[in-house]
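Last lecture ended with a question: if I hand you only a sequence, what can you say about the shape of the protein? Today we answer it with a concrete record. The protein is PlsC domain-containing protein. Below, first the input exactly as provided, then the predicted structure, then a couple of comments.
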Amino acid sequence: MEAIIEDDVIPMLQHHPDFTSYHFAFDPQNVQGPIQKGITYILKVYRIGLLMPMRILFILTSVLSFVVGWIYDQHYKLTVYQKKWLGKFACNLILSSVGGHVRYHDKENRPKAPGFIIINHMSPTDAFPIYVDVELTDDSLFHVTGQKGKGIVKLFQIVVGCIMPTYWVNRHKASERKVFLNKILEIAKTDGLILLFPEGYCSNNRRTLQFRKAIFVDNVDVYPIAYKQTSKYNDIFWWEDDFPSFLFRQITSFGLIYDIYYLPKLNKLPEEKEEDFAYRASTVISDKLETTPSVWGGEHIYKKANKQKAKKDIQTVIYKVYSKKFKFTATNNNNMIGSESTLI
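The predicted structure:
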């Protein structure tokens, strides 16, 4: 059974094949001939020497914009229009920092408060393309949600929270998850738009992971949005073990092409179960991606990896304990043998 799950899920948690083949072709170590090698080295210098400094400047300007806006808001109070304008400006800079080019489709299906916005999840930057396309004349702000981050991710979440309403949760704590769920359901049913990634884990856009059923309840509007990337020049999927490595790959990439499709609003049918509604929503997004939804979630792989790491740590501790014990025993035995030899 585990092998079946892994065969289904693992291909969604690896680099997209288009990116892998294109990246391989432009690696200096994989080409032959002085001209070809020269071209690949020139491109590498161009990406690291020119694109990276410019994109770092975009990121710093974006962060500064959020911070300055927050400071101003503490004294003079920004209007909803001003917050949206500042958010669009800063998010545009973030997209520029990864060489993003976004094409929006079917704008007549744009989300309207209240309700949930659900998107297939690829990276920590998924909220920014949607915010770039918000209507300034609309009086509502949508709320960004996600897993609590660490290090740079945590810092960035704090910065974004200066202007955008945000809710971060530690999904490993049941009590925190319950409070979080009640809060976002209340907002989505009354007056706000909640941006949510029901997969819970990032995937590489080849398929959608299983959607969690918690928000797919009665009396709430659900607005599905499909993200489709062209993976040839860059893969926005976060597969690295740490965020700095992911960020370095993004700011040194050739660029990123997005197609974003606004899909018609969904509602739970009277006799429909929550898990069935969740699967229907994932199917709607998958159809636009020209693929099929998976019935398995990312936790089947990630939690297994955590268990294996814990098991390995335990084995390391046991090994150290027994190593000391055996060393102590061997030392005592040697001393005893030495004593006996002396007596002899």
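Comments.
1. The longest helix spans residues 299-343.
2. Residues 2-297 form one domain.
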